[in-house]
Amino acid sequence: MTLLSRYDALLLDLDGTVYRGHAAVPGAPEAVAAARAAGLAIRFVTNNASRSPQEVADHLTEIGFAPALDEVSTSAQAAASMLADLVPAGSTVLVLGTEALVEQVRQRGLVPTRTADGAVAVIQGLSQDTGWRELAEACVAVRAGAVWVACNVDLTLPTERGLLPGSGSLVRALMAATDAEPLVAGKPAVPLLEQAAKSAGAQRPLVVGDRLDTDIAGACNAGMDSLLVLTGVSTREEAMALPEEQRPTHIADDLSVLSATVNG
Known about the structure:
Protein name: Haloacid dehalogenase
GO molecular function, one term: phosphatase activity
InterPro entries: HAD-like_sf (IPR036412), HAD-SF_hydro_IIA (IPR006357), HAD_sf (IPR023214)
Strand order of the largest sheet: 5-4-1-13-14-15
Pfam families: Hydrolase_6, Hydrolase_like
Cofactor: Mg(2+)
């Protein structure tokens, strides 16, 4: 029996799991191809809300994965879907984020704006262009009672220059200014993983990632099995130091374990 035989879908994290920077993790494209060949649904699940699904798919194609567009699940998609369930169609939504996030809002029948005037909701993702003026508009809207959804609350963003402020750092700034807390779409919150599993038609999904605080915690929160791969941030020792209910279901050096014979 292999791990692949136990599940009907893989919900795969990206950076640190299937690629590092601009290169695929060795063996990862082959492992994903083997899962597809075994009949598993594949979803590439990312907290990144800055890039469109097409941009994510294009990058994955360049490094050997060749995903279909509907195999990409982003926190921007999950957050926009959350908003569409919370406010009426045609509602005006203040967007803090890139044009990719604007497009996700528009695709769900909502009207994106960059000012607080008339906004009944705020959706927040990471954009390197977000400054005081943008945060001030969001502050006005949230203080006036707008529904607030954050794509993710990752405090830092890994870059070639080291860790830089992530979306969660700007979310915290707005929290401090409004005394409010947003609803959250991305890992470790459950909406992104639940929507990815639903889109895959999965009954027995396996969440695969390299971070205990987002990927594995998200799987635990969603009641899904998980695989921690040691190709990114977290270590086996860190995983085993957690309370049992917070540990990953499986731990492996890399994605090659998916096709390996396992006991049980």
